[in-house]
Structures
1.
Amino acid sequence: ALMAACRALQLQAVTALLSAGASVDAVDAAGCTLLHHLASSRPGVLPYSIAAAVARHLARLLLRRGAHVHA
């Protein structure tokens, strides 16, 4: 669920899932971490500048929660 929320840039969902104990170092079947997905996120329905700002905010949140940069 956290992986999907990150890919969709859903700030509230990511925050709630992290508060519920979701792992910041989750890895998908391809070996990509949450930070990988945020680094390559696409804006979807959001304007690019807003999507980029949300992705940066989520990445900082994950890093503050202990996500490993080199995972």
Note: The CA atoms of residues 15 and 21 lie 10 Å apart.
2.
Amino acid sequence: RLDHTGVVQVHDVGEEQGLSYYVMERVHGLPLHRVIEAERERRAAGRPELAIPALVAELERGPEPELPRRE
């Protein structure tokens, strides 16, 4: 099980009356579509830097998953 601040937890998945669904934890902050819109506007204006550098930095320095080792 992966537990990291940069990863949303999925609590349940299933199917009801032919429709698939999933239940995930609530994430506070801007809606993803607004973040994507801001990124598009930034790039269209000729500014290639990321609109979400904190997220990128967190993912880059996040903990590595512990994998079983065979030695």
Note: Residues 32-44 form the longest helix (13 residues).
3.
Amino acid sequence: DNPVTREDEKLPPLRASIEAMGMLKPILVTPRATWMSTNPDKPVREDAEWVNIDGHRRLAILDLDPRATQP
């Protein structure tokens, strides 16, 4: 699950930065099975195929703006 909410005050400046320069750092994900084998005490949604490791705010921007693309 994405811990960032739409009300996160850091989203508007990040969105403006992504619009101006593009997404400079990719979102880091790992397969759910890999995550569960190394982090059994940190469960994720049953229907998740991937787990977001780094880039929760960038992912939130992609959710808010379907025109945005991820490198």
Note: The chain has three helices and two strands.
